[in-house]
Amino acid sequence: MSDLVFKGKAIKLGDNISTDDIIPGRFAHLRSHLPELAKHVLEDTDPAFVTKVKQGAFLVAGKNFGLGSSREHAPVVIKMSGISVILAKSVARIFFRNAVNVGLPMFICDTNKIADGDKLEVDLAQGRVKNLTNGAELAFNKLPEVMLKILEGGGLVPYIKKYGDFKVR
Amino acid sequence: MGKTLAEKILSLKSHSDARVGDIVIAEVDLAFLQDTTGPLTIRQFKESGFQVLAQPQRTAIFLDHAAPSPSGQLSNDHIFLRRFAKETGCYIYEVGDGICHQLVAEHFANPGDVIVGSDSHTVTAGALGAFATGMGSSDVAVALALGKTWFRVPESFLINLSGAFPKGIYAKDLILYLIGQIRADGATYKALEFSGEALARVTMPQRLTMANMVVEAGAKVGLFPSDEVTKDFLLAQGRGDNYKALFPDADADYERVISVNLAQLEPVVSFPHQVDNVFPVGQAKGIKVQQVFIGTCTNGRLEDLAVVADIIQGKRRHPDTRLLIAPASRQVLIQAMREGYIQSLIGAGATILPPGCAACLGLHQGVLGDGEVCLSTANRNFKGRMGNPKATIYLASPATAAASAIRGEVTDPREVM
Question: What ipTM did this prediction achieve?
Answer without folding.
Answer: 0.96
